[in-house]
């Protein structure tokens, strides 16, 4: 893993630019035989860059009803009652609980709320760099969907779901 975290980020609180930012999800379908890629829309969030990077924080909210893959039927199933239940739980939220540097790079620990259920998640910060008027962040995590509160679909979709974030904030 190559981590490109600049220490030249200007301290401050930045608002995620939802129009320029993306959230991609990757899992396997059909007993692990077929990869599935999807996106979800960001509703908002903030990144606070502290003078001491270890005290930095972040939060973000996704629109659960915007799950979009290459299969309209799958999309409907995922946002439905069995999986995300977007009608009852319209938002998926993340809030950080700590930021730490390891030999491999910076990690952002946090809590992911899905279907009203909280679970621990750790984002690997692959890139954090200044851009005109703000910052650009690239991060990823692997979430155990069952631990995150989405227990149905055994055999249909694998437990690990990879999340890739490409965020612009200003």
From TrEMBL:
InterPro entries: Lipid/polyisoprenoid-bd_YceI, TTHA0802/YceI-like_sf. Residues 13-168 form the Lipid/polyisoprenoid-binding YceI-like domain. SUPFAM superfamilies: YceI-like (SSF101874). Belongs to the UPF0312 family. This is YceI family protein. It comes from Paractinoplanes pyxinae. The lineage of its organism: Bacteria, Bacillati, Actinomycetota, Actinomycetes, Micromonosporales.
């Amino acid at each position: 893993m190559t981590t490109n975290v600049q220490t030249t980020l200007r301290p401050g609180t930045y608002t995620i630019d939802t129009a320029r930012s993306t959230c991609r999800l990757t899992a396997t379908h059909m007993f692990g035989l077929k990869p599935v890629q999807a996106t979800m829309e960001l509703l908002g969030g903030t990144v606070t860059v502290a003078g001491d990077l270890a005290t930095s924080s972040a939060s973000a909210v996704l629109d659960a009803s915007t799950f979009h893959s290459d299969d309209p039927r799958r999309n409907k199933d995922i946002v439905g009652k069995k999986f995300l239940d977007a009608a009852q739980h319209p938002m998926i939220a993340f809030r950080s609980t700590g930021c730490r540097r390891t030999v491999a790079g910076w990690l952002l620990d946090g809590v992911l709320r899905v279907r009203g259920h909280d679970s621990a998640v750790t984002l690997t910060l692959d890139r954090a760099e200044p851009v005109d008027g703000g910052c650009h962040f690239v991060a990823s995590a692997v979430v155990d969907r069952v631990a995150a509160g989405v227990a149905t679909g055994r055999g249909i979709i694998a437990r690990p779901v990879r999340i890739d974030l490409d965020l612009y904030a200003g």
